[in-house]
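hi support,

uploading two proteins for the ticket. first:
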Amino acid sequence: MIDKEMRSKAKGLVRPLITKPVQPLSSHMHLFLLCILFLSALFLTLSEAVCNLQDRESLIWFSGNVSSSVSPLNWNLSIDCCSWEGITCDDSSDSHVTVISLPSRGLSGTLASSVQNIHRLSRLDLSYNRLSGPLPPGFFSTLDQLMILNLSYNSFNGELPLEQAFGNESNRFFSIQTLDLSSNLLEGEILRSSVYLQGTINLISFNVSNNSFTGPIPSFMCRSSPQLSKLDFSYNDFSGHISQELGRCLRLTVLQAGFNNLSGVIPSEIYNLSELEQLFLPANQLTGKIDNNITRLRKLTSLALYSNHLEGEIPMDIGNLSSLRSLQLHINNINGTVPLSLANCTKLVKLNLRVNQLGGGLTELEFSQLQSLKVLDLGNNSFTGALPDKIFSCKSLTAIRFAGNKLTGEISPQVLELESLSFMGLSDNKLTNITGALSILQGCRKLSTLILAKNFYDETVPSKEDFLSPDGFPKLRIFGVGACRLRGEIPAWLINLNKVEVMDLSMNRFVGSIPGWLGTLPDLFYLDLSDNLLTGELPKELFQLRALMSQKITENNYLELPIFLNPNNVTTNQQYNKLYSFPPTIYIRRNNLTGSIPVEVGQLKVLHILELLGNNLSGSIPDELSNLTNLERLDLSNNNLSGSIPWSLTNLNFLSYFNVANNSLEGPIPSEGQFDTFPKANFEGNPLLCGGVLLTSCKPTRAKENDELNRTFLMGIAIGYFLSFVSILVVRAW
């Protein structure tokens, strides 16, 4: 009953509102409603803009100091900076910025100090950009909540900001866990910033590699950062001794300080780091012995101490490092023998003991236990005895080098069991039977590099084309049998090496002419036939090598082990780690070749080096040589060349060496460009050469005088005809 009465009253109240006509709004009311709508919209907009205003202004200031080669940041398109690219905010009411992550963004410019105003920033990643300039003053200490800082692979320069302590700030602690400043242009001593670093109690990883830092390696972080796991100081200019205090970083797993100027011995305290997995100290000036206590580092997987001055023997208990995967001790003064316990390092993948003073035999070492071994380099030592057959039980081997030892015997057919073998370097030993060696090795299906130089002395190399089976050496790219004093002609079976790119047949006793089919090898770009007994003329076909006529697209560039050459009789070997680091070259020095230099040589536009010295070549220097725009070395000395030096050679802008001494050349030496820098000795032995660096005046020859008379006579006739013609026209005009 009550409900009915209430409903009827309600209807009575509503009905008048419906039945009465709607009155138009006044202008004041209309304006009032518009203001309400505007304020509502503004409120909704502001409620979406949750980004902290100070952080937003700091980011805008940062973006104003950088530009991008990829695409603009476009941070001004939205009011809410939390939605901007690379920005993350926390969940607080005013949404502070906590992350700036813009790696590989193509950014250039400087790092604005406004970033220091983003006080809750916990991660800053600007790696792999092109940012430059110094880091802002006080940069580290103002960002006291920063946990991850990655500015690697930029161009930041100058010294680290000097972080000074004010009042109680010397007792401040910082949250930083990962600090990566690697691959920049930073310099100076790190110790100056120690106030900040000493407060990094949570530091886990510290990487300043690939800069120009100097002074001693800092170690005070080991006192303040008990969680420190990674230290990387490599590729800088640090000097002095390795601090014993590094032994206090008990949780350290990675210690890298290679490629510096460190000296002294490796402190024994380092061997207390029981968690250490990587010890990387190569290319320094370290001395002393490798302490046997190093075998206490049972978790060590990588030990690199190469290119130092270490001496003594390899620790006899090296086999205790059962987790070791890489052992690189090459280029030191280590002596003794290879410890038999090394066979216990069954996880070993790479073993490099090259260039030491190791000796003894290798047949007792149980290589069969090293089933994971892929790379073995024992070159340039004094190992004796037979080539160890047990090595062929390492089924994973891809690269072997025993070069520069005193090994004897023949190559065993067991080498065919190494199905993954791609690199074999056995040069400078006392191996015999080259016919047997080549017969066996041509069956290695993946072999791409074969260097047998300085072996098989005075043997006759097999020469018939059918010596090589149709599928022999299917992937061979580098072939070297130099300095073996091999007899016979250049082997005809070489024509079947369709993949060969580098071929060294130098310093042998090959006779006969240079076969033209060498010019048909499609990928050959480096050929050395020097110091043989070759006769005849240079075949035109040789100067049609396709790989020297146009640039080849590189692939499979890296070599399994570096290759060392001794070009141009220099005292130090040139090291090549990539196949295409070899300069495109033709060496045919010191043979008995006759005839002229074919004009077809001008087709080899990729050629960098051409050396034909010490032959009996005659004729003129081809003007077509000026087409070789990449040529860096040209040596035609000690021949019978005549005529003049083409002035067009001055257009060879990369030519850094030119030698035509001891020929029969005549006329002026070109005096433009780099020709003014070549030494006098490179032109001597040519009595009729003049001018240039010889500092002798060029007297006109009889032929030149006749040419001058002829030109004068012809000029006189031309002038006479012209004057006669003009006089006739004048007479007719009158």
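and the second one:
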Amino acid sequence: MSTSSVSKGCFVFKPSAKKKKTLSLEDHFIHGCEGADESKTRFKLCQDLWDQIKTDTELLQDELNTKILDSLLDFTRKCSSTRQHSDWASHMRASEIPTAALVLGVNVPDHDMTFQSLSELLRQSVTPHVASVQAKECGALKHLIKRVLERLMGTDVTVDDDEEEETEQTSAPLHKSVHCSLSTLCDWYTRNTKKSYSLTPGKKRSSPVKDNLQQPPIVIIFKDLEAFNARVLQDFILICSRYIERLPLMFIFGIATSPSTIQHMLPHSVSSLLCIELFQSLSCTQHLATVIDKLILTTHFPFKLNGKVMQVLISIFLYHDFSVRNFIKGVQLALLEHFHSQPLSVLCCRKKEALLNVMQLGHRDLERIRQLPSFKRYVEKQEPQEQEHLLTDDTHLKEVCRRLIKDLRKYHKHYYPTLRCLHTLTSSLPRYPLGKQIRELHLICLEKNVWENEEYQSAMKLLKMLAKDELISLLKKCAEILQHSKNMKSALLQLEAMLAKFKQLDTVVAEPPPPAEESITSPVKNLQKKTDLFQLQKALLEMNESRRSKKLSPFEVLRNETLQFVDSLVQSHLSPPESQTLYEVCYYSSSATVRRHLNAAPRTSIQAALNSPFYYLQNDRLKSEDGSVSNAAPDICIVYKLHLECGRLINLFDWLEAFATVVSAAEGNDPDSDSFGKVDDVKHARFIRAVSELEFLGFIKSTKQKTDHVARITWGGC
């Protein structure tokens, strides 16, 4: 920009107010896909399923937390009413600070949603005065008091002179600053309470607090108790105990590990000031089981995960964070990757919409269907004339695809009720041969034919040993499961007929048992007479044969018949999804992609970027075939590659000369000239910056052995 001025000076040009346009998720999605119209359709389908998963997860979270949240609300109401009584016991209890110890488990990422729901419910039905604090923002006592006052009073709070200077440098506050002390909170609470309850009789109250609560409590939520400084927490409780007669304070401790944490952090002199009541939330494994049952093992969601992807997500849950929230994020990531990488995912939607989308497929999409492994297997099973029509006639292929999509939907409607029935029968068996959780049985069924599994065979043998009452109870549960499935009516009728036969067994007169001398007693008598080893072996064989030839009772016959029916049901409906044609349009199978995104490996990523900058920058000048780094690469990549050629100690001067030589070649200088490879101020500065960045990333460090050397601290590559 040019300027005209008589005198010399410094001119400041403000940047344009126009902000750089940022790409939305839809733009990124469409940018990496072929065909704009098809990509928009796929993105819309993906977004609808994404929103549905999010909505259903939040509703499920609220349902699971309803019991514990209702208990906490009752606790706060009870403690508030206790302060209004004048009897001696209530007075003694009112001198303590009511405290709810809420044990949420180690799934810390899920706690925010629980505390958010709790805060909203408290504000709606108990008190408008709720403040939540975290350990990372309360390193000192003054910071803790400041955060509590700011969130209760909705104003800026002054701590000391240093923070006053910081406040002046920031933007102008909306409210006037107040002094940081609980006496300020007492004055504010008294004014606010009088203002809220000095309404005229004919005017409705705007406060959500009930009319019988003359003094709504002040609830302070400590989200992560274990992370708080023990000394800060002790001092805060001691200060609050001195104001308990003027402020109706209540604490809620969010505990991730064990209730004994309170005893470890607070001495008896401090914990005796608290009236603690314990609350236990649902375990994270039970939460995950419910999420899988309601969101994964259902026909409401057309998108599915194959066995390997499910195993990756469950392994991350069990061995990393126990977070159901992160598990849902993994499902959403797989959903996004599936719709982005699979052009035929346009058929992964509800039945009517999928059948409509089939008829709108172009020739290129139909060719993609013909290349699917499952469709190739289907074509090989057809007659030669039908094979020709499937491979050449697009119209005929569309009609066949409509039928195959219907069959795939029908497969899922049969699969999930049968899976639940099999889990109901086997989950009560000793040692859980097919797993205690339904997700374990689901993974087995996704991998191979479950009826060919040794665990399945042993489970069926154990079922043949069940007593009548226990077997009838399990079969009734299976009948309840089948009643909720419209596509399993024939199986339900057969099962109900067998239950009726079991009921009739009680009315049938039992046949007299065979004479004891003819059955098992005779070998036993022979066994008592003879002590010879040969005769003993012969007698034992006779006993075994007599037991085998023993006539089965009516119950045993009916039990075997019932289990044969269950086995036929399993073999008909629990085949792996890979056996279904066009399963690729609904099932996501790239477990490596999910693992790479969710299990981040920073060192591997950094080394890959420094070794192959083209992978991230996508610049053709950075391509290299032999694995070497181009001389046009960023300085840090050149320095990193040179440092790999050195030993434990690296001479900085030799390193600098090698760097200058590579950079000179990148600048196109004549190798025969005297200036080639010479170190100037610019190259020296670039080298120092690159080495500093390498030290910051943790590849080198300074050493006292030699002043002009640095030590290499990483070995091996990715």
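thanks. also noticed: The chain is about 55% helix and 5% strand.
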